[in-house]
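subagent[fold] <- orchestrator: predict structure for attached chain, return tokens only, no commentary.
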Amino acid sequence: MLDTGLVKKTVALLGSFDDEEIETYNQLILAASLSVCELLDENADEGDARVIQYAAAKAYYSICCIAENAEGITSFTAGEITVKQNADLKGGAEDVLRAAANDCRPLFKSASELDETNGFAFLGV
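subagent[fold] -> orchestrator:
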């Protein structure tokens, strides 16, 4: 099992979350950590920094998807002052996720192993 404490710290850095705020995302962090563990080859080191980064990126992407859908308002104007929120949280998180997945690729099970356990194959007619 991945060290979810390290994953949580990495998510907090990615999202600039304080200690209280990061606690609300415990379930997402745990789920991301477990899903990454399922992808890893049996000889892969779960303490590898690339694995921690990938799990954190998966959790952060989920958080950004939820935040983007929940907030809705991206800017407002009051008199001469305009406040604009970065509306592309999900896009940035997706870039981080893609890079982390690419870094972890050598640690993953082979495609055939993943297909055998998690997929469906139609073998004939």
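orchestrator: received. Logging for downstream: The CA atoms of residues 61 and 94 lie 6 Å apart. The chain has six helices and two strands.
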